[in-house]
Amino acid sequence: MRVNTLSMKLNVRIEEAAVKEGAIVMSGFAGAMPCETVVAADEAAHMLRLCLKPAIIKLVLKAFFTRATPKASD
């Protein structure tokens, strides 16, 4: 996923997800730096409601059934 701000664009790669202290904790890398993203249950419910649009559901389902193309190495 990519996070865009006014000052920078940052690629975030989530490696693990778990529940800790009543929140969803996702660990991975933001650029080259290790990072942790914490999402409270009410925030996750809000995100789910936002994503229950036909176009988003179709995109996610398509991703499940589409083979990823290998990336060319430099």
The gist of it:
Helices cover 31% and strands 42% of the residues. With 74 residues, it is of the alpha+beta class. A 4-stranded antiparallel β-sheet has the order 1-2-3-4.
Which helices and strands, and how do they pair?
Layout: E1 2-4, E2 9-20, E3 23-30, E4 33-40, H1 41-51, H2 54-65
What does this 3D model show about the protein?
The chain has one domain. It is built from two helices and four strands; from the N terminus they run E-E-E-E-H-H. It has helices at residues 41-51, 54-65, and strands at residues 2-4, 9-20, 23-30, 33-40. It is globular, with a radius of gyration of 15 Å. It starts with a strand and ends in a 9-residue tail after the last helix.
Calculate the terminal CA-CA distance, rounded to whole Å: 22 Å
Runs in which pLDDT lies below 50 for 5 or more consecutive residues are none
Our Rg estimate from Cα atoms comes to 15 Å
Strand ordering within the main sheet: 1-2-3-4
In DSSP terms (H or I, runs of 4 or more residues), the helix count works out at 2
Would you tell me the structural class of the helices and strands? alpha+beta
Instruction: Tell me the number of strands.
Output: 4
Q: Can you write the helix and strand succession as a string?
A: EEEEHH
- Which oligomeric state applies? single chain
Number of domains: 1
β-strand amount: 35-45%
The main β sheet shows up as: 4 strands, antiparallel
Helical content, roughly? 25-40%
| Average residue-wise pLDDT | 90
